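The instructor's notes for this session suggest beginning with a concrete chain rather than abstract definitions. Hand out the sequence below and ask the class to guess, before any prediction is shown, which regions might be ordered.
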Amino acid sequence: SAKAAWEAAKAERQTLDAKARGLRADAPKAATAEAAAVRESERLLAELVRLGERRADLEAQARTLDSELNEARAAVEAAGTVADTAPSSAPTDDPAQARAAVDAARAAAAEAAAAAQSMVRDKAQRDARRQIVEREIGQWRARIADADARLKVLDGELNEIEKRRDAAKSAPEAARAKLEALMEEAGGAEQRRADASDRVAQGETAARVAAEQARASEQAHAAARERRAGAEAHASAASARVEDVAMQAREVTGKPPEELADAAGSLLGAALGSAPISEVERRLERLKAEREAAGPVNLRAQEELAEAQERIDTLTTEKNDVAQGVAKLRRAITTLNNEGRTRLMKAFEEVDAHFAQLFATLFEGGQAALKLTESDDPLEAGLEIFAQPPGKRLTSLNLLSGGEQALTATALIFAVFLANPAPLCVLDEVDAPLDDANVDRFCRLLEEMKRLTTTRFIVITHNPVTMSRMDRLYGVTMPEQGVSQLVSVDLGRAQALAAE
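After discussion, reveal the predicted structure:
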């Protein structure tokens, strides 16, 4: 029975070895056959329990055989004693057979124990492999979940990029339309300004012509008034002389003036008859000279005076119209200048406030300000930058170092963009004169500007610190002579891939 048990245990061990080899051969497929492996392990555990029970039975049998062996040894010793005292005629082989049976039983038990230990080791190895497979499955599931999450993030980024791409596609058209509208408005404003300037020039020219014509008319009117006054004076003098002559004639002759013609004729005849001819001729020449000295009588003086007055009135009206037009244009220019001053001062104050804040951020302290110089009128004044870095005196921009000038100019540019944002800003090697600490400040300020505005910043740089802080890098290489190639790197995506 012990030999049969040993053979059965050996057969079972071979069966288990074959199954173990089969399991080892199927180990690469354990991820898809996890349930079957669990069932098999449970069956093997049950088999191990059964083998343990059989081992206990075999050990009990071995103990029984040992007892029988001892009894056999005792019998042998007793038999030897009997043989010494009374030798037997025929020796027996039963103790040797019993010892052989015991040895065989022990060997079978040892073989069964070794088989049980081997099965335990195989089960432990299978459990370890199963745990490894489960751990790898968990890791793969975690990586799949991470990949799904990353895919969702990438889908969101792709949607955002598509939206931004669509917006970018429509932005140039909108910007172009806005630019064209602004250009048309600027052209119209320029045309209106040119027209206004032309009208002002024409008005001033007309005013000058009207003034000259008015002066000429006034001079002509004055000359006419003088001639009229002279004529009136001559007429008054002649009337006075006529009255004096009439009065003298009445006193001398005692006759009224209407009767003096006859008396004058008789007296003239008497005078001419008695006076010498030479005296009469001298008197005649003297009278002609007096008449010439009095000048010719202008019979159209009154009409010319009326025409001159009408022309003066017309020119005066035109002059007043031109003066009103000039005054209106000057009021419009004054209004535009006042509005320009108001807008300029508002923009100046806003830029100045942003400039002071950005300067303090870049320099981590200090103060800066913009000042209007050379004139009280903002439209005619100049602009001066005063800056005081930490630990230094307040001074103008020209007295700062190269790096300080670059940071100050950067703060001023960003202040203008905060006051009036633009869609695009190109910064060409503004970090060239800066050290690493100031480059870091510049990059942090650039990130803050990106957050506060919708402006896209394009930075041309050779500084590795600045390049490492950008979202995307573009480089131009020349793989072969005369051929340029554009290389683009998305740093955000590269960091995400490196993290995975």
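Then share the key points. The CA atoms of residues 182 and 376 lie 30 Å apart. Strands lie at 367-373, 382-388, 395-396, 424-428, 456-460, 472-480, 483-490.
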